[in-house]
Amino acid sequence: MKDNSKIISLSKISSKLKSLKNKKTVLVGGCFDIFHYGHLQFLKKAKESGDFLIVALESDEFIRKNKEREPIHNQKQRGYILSGFSFVDLIILLPYFSKEKSYFDLVKKIKPNIIAVTKGDPKIENKRKQAAMVSAKVKEVTPLIKNFSSTRIYKMYEAFFSD
Hints:
Layout: E1 7-9, H1 13-17, E2 25-30, H2 37-48, E3 52-57, H3 60-67, H4 75-83, E4 90-93, H5 100-110, E5 114-118, H6 124-133, E6 137-142, H7 150-161
Parallel strand pairs: 1-4, 2-3, 2-5, 3-4, 5-6
């Protein structure tokens, strides 16, 4: 996989942020493991909320612990897939965050103007607190599209290929 300037590690974020001073930044987070229609709609709508879309991409360990399964694509592959979309401007490869404080620290460092979420986001209260900390707004950019979930797709795949 060739190097891609849209994909950076968390340690490199400060140098990237300097060039974003006059841009309206939108931050989203997620796994994006089995990329589907719901992901596409969410990211496109998030980008429409600002000038520069930053994706905080969860680690493989996050998928193992929180989704209780192996990732289909590793984090670098998922980052590479996301980097192919013109509306995604930057992908941050997150290490595994075991504490909620790490997400607060990430938001403090990035200082986005908007944190974009899907309606019904289970972490909405934390995201509101994070946004308030940096004078940002939380914006619901898409409804939850029930039939499109990586977990649902994974379970269908698993059922199809199991004995």
